[in-house]
Every structure is written in C-alpha cells, then in structure tokens.
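Researcher: Quick test of sequence recovery. Tokens follow.
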C-alpha cells in the first residue's frame, strides 16, 4: 500500500531499504577512508528529488498553488494548517491585484527534518496597469497523521508581508487639473476620467495630459504592501515613484463655470454652454448636459441663424447699411427650393436690414445672396477665425464654411445651413470677435499652446460697429427678448438650425451673445431643442442672472 507520504508498506520493500542503508553506510565509511568527495556520495544515493517525502510534499504544494492561481481561495485554504486565515489573505490579494493571468510554479524542495519539507516557488502575474510582476517565496510543508499540509503564514503569500498586511495596486500619484484660481477644476466633461483599473486618463484633459499629470512614462500602477485595516501603503514593490506629476492649469473661471452648469441644470435635452473672454480668448466656462461628451468644444452642428452675424458682416463689407430697406416675405424660392421664416412670419413694409437681423428673417438673407460671391462667406468667416486650426491646449472643432457650390448651396449657407458647421465654442468666439473687434483664438490650457491661430483677415471698424448695433437690437426689439430686462447691456443673436430628414424638420436651438459692460461672450446650444429665442434664450438668461 502507498501511503500519503510516499512510503510503500511492504516487507520486501522494507528489507531492500534496509540493505540500501547498509550499502550507504559502507560507502560513507569507504569514502571517508579513501577521500571520495561528497559529489560521489550524491551520485550513488540520489538527490533530494528522489526523496519520496519531498515528492509527496511537492505534490500537495502543487495542488495548493493551482488552487491559489485559479483564484479558488477556499480550496487553497483547506490545504493549509489554518484554513480561515489562508483563505482570507489569498482572497484579499487576488481581489486587490485582479490579475489577468497567474502562474505559480514550485521549485526543488528539500527535507529539513523528518516530516518537514521546504519548497521554493515562483509567482508570475499579469496586472492591469502594472504589467508583468514576478516574485519568489517558499513554503514549508509538514506531515501530520500521514498527510502533508501547507504551513500557512503571511510571508508565504509574499515574503515582504507580515500579519495584518496584504498586496494591492496603487495608481501613480496624479497631479490635479486646476482652474484659473489654482483650485481643482469642477467640470467633469472638461477634466475627463481616469480608468480605475489601469490608472490612465481615458478622456478629456486627464487623457491628453496623462504623462504630465503622472510625472512621466512607465507603468501607471505599482504593486504595494498595505495595511489591511487602514489601506495605508507600507512598502512599494514595483515602480520607483520618484517622478512627481505636474498640475495642468486651465483658464476656467470657477464662478462663470458654476453659473453655466447651473443654467443647464434640469435641462432634458443634450445641451452646452460656453463662455470666453473676448479680450484674451480665455475659455471661462464650458458646461455640458449631460456630462461626458464635450459637445461644448468639440460638437459639430449647423449654426442656423446665429451664423447671420458672419453673413451680415459679408453684406456690410459689400456696402449695405443697417438702415437699408429689407423685404421679408413669407417665402423665398431658389431654383425650385422653398425657404421660409420660422412659423412663416413676415415683416411689414419699410423694415430694414437691422430689423431683418433682429427678427432673424431667413427670406431676406436668402434674397440677398446675389450681393455675395461664392467665396464671400468663406472669406468673411476667416476674419472670425473659422478655417484655421486652433491650438487651444485641448481638442476643439474649429468650424467649417466651404466655398458655395451653386446658388442653392449659397442660399442655405447665408442662414447657417447647408454645409456650414460650427461648435458652441466657435459661435461664442464669433460673438467675442464682434465685442473685441478682432478675433482672439480661444484657449483653455495656455501653457500647452505653441502658436495661436491668427485670422488672415480683420473686420473693418464700420462693420464691427454695425454688427454691435444689430446684435443689441436683437435684444431690445427682436428675437432675443429673453434678455431684454437683464442688466449689463447684453447683445445677442438667436438661431434655429434644421437637421435631419423629418418633415417638418427637427431643429437645434441656439443663442450667442456678449455683455456690453464686461469681458464676457457666450454661446448656448440645445440639441433638438426647438427655437433659439424661446428655448435657448431662457437658458442664456438664467446663465447671466446666475452671474449677477
């Protein structure tokens, strides 16, 4: 019969074993007399690998290591002398490290005494964010009542641990993303997110500046020994931790950001609100509802009638004046395509260009397309920074106004449709350009900007003055009525942009503007949100009221 310790209970086997011990004793005596070395003795009797006690103990350890590697802490614990303690620690280590691959291999064991064997083993793990991790330990197995048992103690699981400790993964210390006052930025859609498993930035500024925030390359997480009760790091096992991350400072004004976020609170549609400083281009706020996609800076939308600021600049450049007579019929036709005003309104006889702008008369602008060349809107948009690549220190969509491809394309472009595209940031910048009189490229992270985009053209002072007058009239006499009672002399332009193929078409709601008494320009977008004046206007009003 073969016992669990590897011995064979058989009289013949015992007699042979006795004779072998006699031979070994004789050989040792001869070796001592003749000067034969220890290597010759080992060659005769065999090494530790031939020891049946070592073999049996190794087999039991292999079963324990296999259970551990598979994450079966309870099974592994049952193979030890203190199952509850072993199960708890193995479960803690495997849960904290959450390896995608674990391989544990036993080495060659040695008998330390009768019924006691010591066996080294190697643990190899693949850890998310920390890469490959290998370490060595050793196990002591004892034979009790004929069975081999793993003697459990904390250093068995890792030699650098003592009771009360466990292993864990710790992300590299990340520096903060800051607002202009040096406080932590309070904008999830701007800051972005960090993967809790890998410790790497996965979106927003956390992703773009991951290397700066963590202090360099290398693994994003390190293996550490921690106290089980408090979680305090006792020892770092991987990673140097010597490189400190550097904070990313933004231009966000916390007061303006808070006002923007509060203005979108409760909005049921996807929405965005951007605010910029016209004199510097600093982005003061960028709020999104819901948080996540940064549609405020990166979204691509038809701007609708808010683009009439650019169209008006082109018409003013061609010699039109705000006081010029402007017909505003219910419909305008271009090669069989019908254009109409929202709710098919008309303006009375004697209305002016300024009136058509303030009330956002589509048919007037479509009818005025003949005064513009195919490239006029494209060229005028360049004075507002559209068409260049903006180096803002973050990802942005910088707008597109293609040269018109035919009369219908030009007609639709005059009212911000067709192929004209912009982000809420671009539209806030358009309002800022009117306020400042010149384009100042928006910037979010100044330290990262290498070269700001310079507009290849500049608006003439007379054009700027007329645009300011017309944007103020939009508030006092036109579609921007939601801002009429507010202080600060707000200037605005509303927009209702069609999209999709539904009939009647669905619309995005826009309002852009600036304050006459301070350095603040802004843009509001409400996706699939109805009308600029009725739906985006109240959000803009709430934002300005929040600022006080």
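Model:
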């Amino acid at each position: 019969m073969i016992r669990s310790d590897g011995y064979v209970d058989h009289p013949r086997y015992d007699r042979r074993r006795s004779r072998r011990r006699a031979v070994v004793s004789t050989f040792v005596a001869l070796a001592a007399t003749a000067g034969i070395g220890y290597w010759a003795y080992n060659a005769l009797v065999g090494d530790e690998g031939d020891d049946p006690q070592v073999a049996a103990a190794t087999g039991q350890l292999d079963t324990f290591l296999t259970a551990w590697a598979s994450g079966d802490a309870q099974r592994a614990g049952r193979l030890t002398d203190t199952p509850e303690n072993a199960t708890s620690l193995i479960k803690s280590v495997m849960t904290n490290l959450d390896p995608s691959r674990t391989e544990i291999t036993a080495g060659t064991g040695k008998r330390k005494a009768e019924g006691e064997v010591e066996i080294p083993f190697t643990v190899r793990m693949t850890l998310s964010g920390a890469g490959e991790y290998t370490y060595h330990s050793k196990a002591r197995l004892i034979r009790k009542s004929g069975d081999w048992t793993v003697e459990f103690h904390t250093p068995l699981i890792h030699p650098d641990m003592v009771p009360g400790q466990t292993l864990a993964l710790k992300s590299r210390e990340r520096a903060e993303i800051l607002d202009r006052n040096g406080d932590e930025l309070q904008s999830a859609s701007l800051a972005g997110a960090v993967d809790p498993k890998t410790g790497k930035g996965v979106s927003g500024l956390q992703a773009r500046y991951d290397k700066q925030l963590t202090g360099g390359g290398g693994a994003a997480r390190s293996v550490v020994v921690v106290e089980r009760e408090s979680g305090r790091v006792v020892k770092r096992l991987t990673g140097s931790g010597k490189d400190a991350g550097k904070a990313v400072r933004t231009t966000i004004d916390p007061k303006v950001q808070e006002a923007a976020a509060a203005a979108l609170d409760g909005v049921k549609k996807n929405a965005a609100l951007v605010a910029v400083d016209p004199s510097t281009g600093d982005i003061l706020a960028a709020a999104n509802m819901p948080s996540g996609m940064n549609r405020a800076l990166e979204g691509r939308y038809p701007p609708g009638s808010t683009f009439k600021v650019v169209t008006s600049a082109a018409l003013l450049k061609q010699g039109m004046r705000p006081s010029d007579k402007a017909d505003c019929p219910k419909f305008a036709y271009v090669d069989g395509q019908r254009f109409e005003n929202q709710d098919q309104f008309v303006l009375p006889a004697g209305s002016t260009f300024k009136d058509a702008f303030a009330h956002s008369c589509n048919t007037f602008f479509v009818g005025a397309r003949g005064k513009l060349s195919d490239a006029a809107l494209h060229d005028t948009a360049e004075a507002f920074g559209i068409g260049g690549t903006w180096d803002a220190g973050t990802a942005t969509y910088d707008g597109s106004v293609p040269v018109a491809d035919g009369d219908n394309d030009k007609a639709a472009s005059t009212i911000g449709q067709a192929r004209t595209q912009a982000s809420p940031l671009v539209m806030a910048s358009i309002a800022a350009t009117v306020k400042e009189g010149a384009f100042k490229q928006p910037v979010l992270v100044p330290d990262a900007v290498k070269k700001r985009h310079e507009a290849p053209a500049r608006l003439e002072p007379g054009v700027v003055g007329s645009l300011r007058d017309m944007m103020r009239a939009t508030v006092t006499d036109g579609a921007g009525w939601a801002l009429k009672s507010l202080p600060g002399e707000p200037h605005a332009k509303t927009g209702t942009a069609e999209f999709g193929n539904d009939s009647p078409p669905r619309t995005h709601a826009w309002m852009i503007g600036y304050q006459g008494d301070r350095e603040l320009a802004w843009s509001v977008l409400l996706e699939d949100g109805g009308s600029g004046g009725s739906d985006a206007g109240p959000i803009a009003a709430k934002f300005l009221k929040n600022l006080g």
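Confidence is low (pLDDT under 50) at residues 1-48.
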